[in-house]
Amino acid sequence: MRNVSLSAVACSFAAALFAAGAQADSSDPIIIPIHNWSSQVVGAHIVGKLLEKTGNKVEFVSTDSQVVYTSMCEGDVDLVHEVWQGAFGVAFEKVVAEGCVIDAATHDAKTREEWWYPDYVEEICPGLPDWKALNACASKFATPETEPKGRFLAGPVDWLKHDAERVEGLKMNFEVVNAGSAAALWAELASASKRKAPIVLFNWTPNFIEAIYKGKFIEFPAYAKGCREDPSWGINPDKAYDCGNPKGGYLKIGVWKGFPEKWPVAYRLVQNINFTNLDVAIMAKLADVDNMEPEAAADKWLADNENRWKTWLKPTS
Ligand code: TMO
């Protein structure tokens, strides 16, 4: 059954293609990276399955989420479908400016990646979510490893949040400790929550966490582009990164510059793909809460959203 409907889609595509007199897609596989947070892994399989519906082959490679932008420039990776402004904006915009990566689409999802705490921490540290209030009770977040400084539990290093630069820029009494994985972040959150122990850790939205824990992001001085590039910007005249991450940040799709020419049919689909906040949160939830394997989670999302992705696949001239 599945093969029949797939080939039907492929046929209507081929027909539209020939009617338009356009070029056919290359038979080379489209290389998609797999990163280390769950919505991305599930979404990569969703995007992969959609690309297969255009008659293309896909291949997945596990890739560092910063190095991937260089890999795209070198033609080793073809498509990144979750470019988070907070984590990857700097790396992404650099390769777009260089002309080797195309800013192919912007999802409706609005993102935020930031220091975060579960609500009970407000009783331990009054004045939150203001960063100065957090800093004033830094020692309450200390661990044997960091004392007398507070511990900020950051994500894996490749998410490159510039937390250490921010701690320095804002002269905070915190030490940044990187978790080895996203799962390690959630395990520490679960354990601290059970004991109502102080914790401040990296989190983001959309994510499955917001469905399970009540909590808030720390409010740092508001993000502005100059903050990351220009030391003189902001409250510390000598240091960059003396501000928070973007609120309402973008989530984009980037492709290697040769993509539109090599896979023109696939590229039309890519430009139509559009995930909302709820989509990304559900992708994370299917993996992290429902413990589904990425492929099965992707199939579930596709089954639940058929009307939408069918319009994404419709050829437009
Ligand atoms: C890129 N991330 C969503 C983990 O911040």
Would you mind describing this structure in some detail?
The chain is an alpha/beta fold and 317 residues long. It has two domains: 6-110 and 248-316, 3-Layer(aba) Sandwich (D-Maltodextrin-Binding Protein, domain 2); 112-229, 3-Layer(aba) Sandwich (D-Maltodextrin-Binding Protein, domain 2). The chain has 14 helices and ten strands. It has helices at 2-20, 38-53, 67-73, 85-98, 121-124, 131-136, 163-169, 182-195, 225-229, 259-262, 264-272, 277-288, 294-304, 306-313; strands at 30-34, 58-62, 79-84, 101-106, 112-118, 150-154, 174-178, 201-205, 215-217, 251-256. The strands form four sheets. It has a three-stranded antiparallel beta sheet, sandwiched between helices. Strand 1 (30-34), helix 2 (38-53) and strand 2 (58-62) form a beta-alpha-beta unit. Helix 2 (38-53) crosses helix 13 and helix 12 (277-288) runs antiparallel to helix 13. Residues 1-7 have low confidence and may be disordered. Bound molecules: trimethylamine oxide (TMO). The site of trimethylamine oxide has 7 residues, from loops.
Give the tags.
D-Maltodextrin-Binding Protein, domain 2; three-stranded antiparallel β-sheet; alpha/beta; binds trimethylamine oxide; 317 residues; single chain
Quick structural overview:
By secondary structure, the protein is α/β, with parallel strands linked by helices.
